Amino acid sequence: MDFRVLGPVEVVGDDGAPLDIGPYQQRAVLALCMIAAPRPVPPSRMIDVLWDEEPPPGAVNTVQAYVSKLRKVFEPGRRREVPPAILVSRPGGYALDIPPQALDLARARGHAEEGRRRAAAGDQRGAGEEFRLALAEWRGEPLADFAGTAWADEEIAHLTEFRLTLEEDLAEADLALGLGEALTGGLARLVAAHPFRERLRVLSAHALYQAGRQADALAVLAEGRRLLVEDLGLDPDPRSREMERRILAQDPALAPRVRAAESRLVGRETEAGALDLAIAEDGHRVVLLAGEPGIGKTSLAEQAARTAADRGHRVVWGRCWDGTGAPPFWPWTQAVQELAGPGGPARLAGGGRFQLYEAFAALLNEHGRVLVVLDDLQWADASSLRLLEFLATTRLCPELTVVATYRDTGVRPGGPLEHALGALARLPHVRRLSLRGLGEGEIREYLGRAGADPGRAAEMARLTAGNPFFLGEVLELGESPGALSDVVRGRLAGLPPETEQVLTAAALLGRDAATDILLRVVELPEERVLDILDAAVGARLLAEGDGLTCRFVHDIVRDVLREALPPLRRRRLHARIAEVLEERSGTRLTEIAHHYREGILSPRMTGKAIGYTRRAAAQATAQFAHEDAVEHLQQAIELIDRLPRSDDALRCDLLLDLAEAQAAAGMSTAARASLEAAAVIAEELGDDSRLARAALGLSDQIYLSMYEEVTDVERLAERIDRALASGLAGDSPWRARLLAAAAFIGSTGRPVGRSRELAAQAVRLARRTGDDGTLSRALIVQELLLRAGDDHDLRRAVIAEIVDIGERTGDLATEWIGRETAYVELVARGETEGAERALAWLRENADRLRLPSMISLAAWQAAVHAYLTGRSGDALAAAEESGAVYPEGALGRGDAHLRRETFRFLALRAGGRPAEALDLAEEILRARPEQRPWRILRCLALIDAGRADRARAGFAELSRDGFAGILPDLAYRFVADALSEICARLGDVAAGRVLYGHLTPGAGRLLGWSVADLCLTRLALLDGDGERAALHLRAAGEFVRRAGLRVYEPALEELEKECSAPE
Q1: Superfamily classification of domain 269-436
Q2: Which of 498, 515, 876, 948 makes a 20 to 30 Å CA pair with 315?
Q3: How many CB atoms lie within 10 A of CB 69?
Q4: In this prediction, what percent of the chain has a pLDDT beyond 90?
Q5: How far apart are CA 211 and CA 217, in angstroms?
Q6: What are the two backbone dihedrals, phi and then psi, of residue 404, each rounded to the nearest 5 degrees?
Q7: Which residues pair with 2 in a beta bridge?
């Protein structure tokens, strides 16, 4: 738990969520204990604070009750006979018995003390970092929820003074490094807020002097002197007078040169120069450092970090977790904690995935110029890589620089790192640097610096291939090290006999092995283990640490120890680690799951591995780390075959969970495959409940686009109907979603009126459930089915409600869908200017959401807009962009391809190339015979090619039963325009009259891309009704000119001639 008073009083649990610490007075009791910790607070003091001078008769009992309730919050599972371990009773009162690192005030004081110690020792850079860490603990005004009470105001004053002193200490450390120019603004604001604080004025004047503003520096001191004399009748203290004298004398010590950079790395001048440039330049910068183990990636990153710190950047590190036990966003969480203190990650909780990403960006942006170093990206979890992609492109943190290292030998083909590197490579502000081995000349310099014989450079090059880590080993041993495993074994040979046991356990625990966990795993006496760790540091196997964790001098050493473990021993050790972690903290789900998977020794442990892996997936989903959830669930499914008996029901459930995670991660093709596999199992089991969930697919409305490319519509509709008929869903959100899915999926095979009625039922039921997600999904389906109808008022109300739900719940994806439908409505009404603004919003926010379906759809709408306004070249380019969003084989790519080919067909027709247009339509229909709109285009192409008989036969099929099969598509793209043209050119008066009736409700609007009145003009002329045709033509002309639909100007002119021609 983390206890916090430097802001509103709160306690955060191990899962990052705030605990319920009760009402005002109960929180006041806790606040008093936190301020005093570790000293006890007498009950009499608590009573004075809670009731001033007039405590009630039962005040002591009330305080005891508050303490008892707080103890239950902190130790919910504690039995009555077990003494409390956190809020304890001591002589003199109640006290918090917690380590200093669990209280923000204690951490701040510790950093402040360490900073002053370092400053006194001359380490100003280290001092500054400590002061920054202390200040990062503040989350606002301390004890904010008790401000205005006498006891709290006194404490707030003390804590405010503590913070101001820290600000001064930090400024003093930075001024000693010559960083005054970067401090002037912040110090000026502090001086304005505290005009009588002389130390601040002296520091502000010093900073101004370092910035080359001597006159301003003297003015700040003069203003301070005037205020003191006139308002307080006091003279300035000696520090102010001394600073004024030194400024006037231009004392060179006031502006020290920033210390020269530490000795630059040998053979890395080009790479170091690129890093220096990235740090110096304004704007986003990402530098990727690639190379084999030991090549010097981390050393070069450390050098870049020192350079950035010298230039006033905040520098934070995120080290990736070795292995598959990484918690979601682990390296970023470390960076945020270093930047904003332990409370930083809690600021990122809540909201959705994209709100989380933006919260990360906003937090980074708060700290100005920040360098984040991500080390060992080959071990990063997939969600951390997605966040890196977002931060590399967002404009929310324009002063962020990222340096990321990774082993180029550790990039798995098709894995998340390869995908991330590919995405980053396309950005102009991202640079990739590959580190090579040192050349012979560089090795000569390396040896000279190390005091070794430069004449051995050629020999060293042969032995080490210029790898700096191996060069160091050769110099240490004085001879060729042979295999690195031999080196490690050689160093172990002179150490205590249990050293290998301890270090191999540490190697499996990960990059930073917690000492307390290690002690439990190896089951040796504590003093013995600590002696072994000290000896390993002396043997250059472990690095010097803080005692709480142990770290190897290089990951290569840890790799050697792990690889040397026999398989069965490795498995037993993983199992032991899993048990210890489970006993110590059941919340480290990802780690526990990893070690149980690697340590399976029995069927019972297989079950545990599946259980913890599934819980880890749920935790990742709750943290919007959907890619991590996918990986966990895939691992769990693989483990099912290791159970004593195959469990098909469990496999089905895991597949359903996997499909949801895949869809949330944008893996729509994989999600569809998982759903289909789950549906097959559910059918074999005869399990209607699981079949219903599989048929429904995904519960979130933004993935309805999944069904666009489901070719086996009938089978899917049957599964949904079976789920509805089973009655399992009852009167629930689930049933409402099934009704919406039935309305949408079944719309191709039933009368449109029936589908609209199902959608209306879904909306009514969703309203009764009170579930916004279910209601928005039902409304989205209802809107789609209303597009070809005449109830425009209802449709506009539905659109407004979808947008409202998205805005009210903070669900940007739902809001986006609502605004996309609103855009379609603006286009339909011919409100081009408003539509252009809406389209700009859609494109911008599709990029924010980073969902391929939405990015593609926004590009497609831009293509349609360009087409309608007569910019065919732009239309084709935007259509190409729409298709390029999807990777090869991804669900959605096929629809994007069809959209692009639609424009190619139209261009071929417009260019007088009917044979090619016909070939294209035939090709599309061979691959996708279910595509009714392309059957309409084929009819047009057949007429253009002079093959009217074939066109007539195809059109008879389309117009059968009064166009019953085509009615849902009348408001789809070009359908109405194409059908009216076919009727006119084939002279099919009967079909034209039927179509006229269907299109009449759309008069004065666009139906898809079709100007309804133009279509009605053609059909009226076909029917021989010139008067009606003239009325429609006048309305069409007004609409086309008002909306700027230049694509229809030729058709308009042609129909005007036809209407004015004598009979």
Answers
A1: P-loop containing nucleotide triphosphate hydrolases (3.40.50.300)
A2: 515
A3: 15
A4: 27
A5: 9
A6: -125, 130
A7: 12
